[in-house]
User: Fold this.
Amino acid sequence: MLKNLYIPLLLLLVSITACNKKDVRQQLEGTWQGKDFADEMLEGVDEEEREIGRQFIQKIFYTFNADGSCIKKAPDGENKASWEYNDRSRSIIITYTDNHQPPIQEFEIKSITGDELKISSGPTGFGSLDFIFEKK
Assistant:
């Protein structure tokens, strides 16, 4: 009896996991514009400096296409890339096809709703930086 129940439960679990990955990937597709920092590390930063940073991030756009291609537009230019969603680490991995440095970036997804994406750059020389993007 238990054996008969095991296979349908396993199939249900696999299909739920596949749907969740597809749902997040579909939510990511589209164009996202930087909005702000979401980082406690910046709490002590002078408001004027924070505003300069906020204005800079608001000029950054990522477009994630369904075919796995990606375009990053920033004040320093436009970069073409490919992207993938890693369900295990809940991260976006961007691999640039031009001279972008670093050539690969990984952003952990802190949260995603229909129109807001919170990501973390992971450890940097300044600690971990968290960003908020809005869907356009």
Q: What stands out?
A: The CA atoms of residues 63 and 98 lie 16 Å apart. The helical segments are 2-28, 47-57. The longest helix spans residues 2-28.
